[in-house]
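Project standup — Tuesday

K.O.: blocked on the structure for the chain from last sprint. Re-posting the sequence here as requested.
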Amino acid sequence: MQDVIRTKIDYPKIAGILKEQLHLDGSPVAVKFIPGENLVPEDVPHIGETIPHCQMVNRARKEGAIFYATKENHSCMGGAYALGLREITPTLKNGEFYFKLGKYDSWASCKRTIDRIPHVESGATYATAYAPLEMTPFDPTIVLIVTTPKAMLKLAQSSLYLLGGRINCNLAGIQSVCADASAQVYLSGAVNFSLGCDGSRKYSGIQEHEMVMGIPAEMLSQIADALPIVTGAPGSS
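H.V.: unblocked you, prediction finished:
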């Protein structure tokens, strides 16, 4: 059995709309959570090196790379945990890791944060796959976009265009691309924004004027249809 989305989605067309309307610096990135070895997409090569998830995203975004990675290829233990590839490490679970980095006033405040990090069930993900959205050979689970706050405004408005309501962001300033923009979106089925974190800004090319958004793949067509309307509306700046 293939792991596909039954509703057909025109990924190249949607990528073109996103790039044109948002003036993206790079491609939207298709990310797939692969639950089993037998479900690795055919003709997608193995990355063959060990780097963080956020750097993998940047490879697809800026270099047009297409590949998959297993847990051995994920160098960031926190990211691998958030994505469901590994069990949480003892020092991350008890708060020691981030406390040593000076990110929290107390061990307890660090532990409170770690306990609330969005994460896929450990072991539920065999591998993750990456591709520029316009070239993706697989149906992604989520799509990641890195762009300016003004462009994110238009994405937020587009995600609410059909039904309205509110967007409830879930972020902590750590594990941004892996937990905030990937795991949270996968688990919730809703868009989420992230400010980026120190690690992702170091490894994934996120600039000072940029932030990150995760979109469930099933919402892509809805957002792409609404985006030109929203950006062209009389009240749009």
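K.O.: great, moving the ticket to review. Residues 176-188 form the longest helix (13 residues). DSSP finds ten helices and six strands in the chain.
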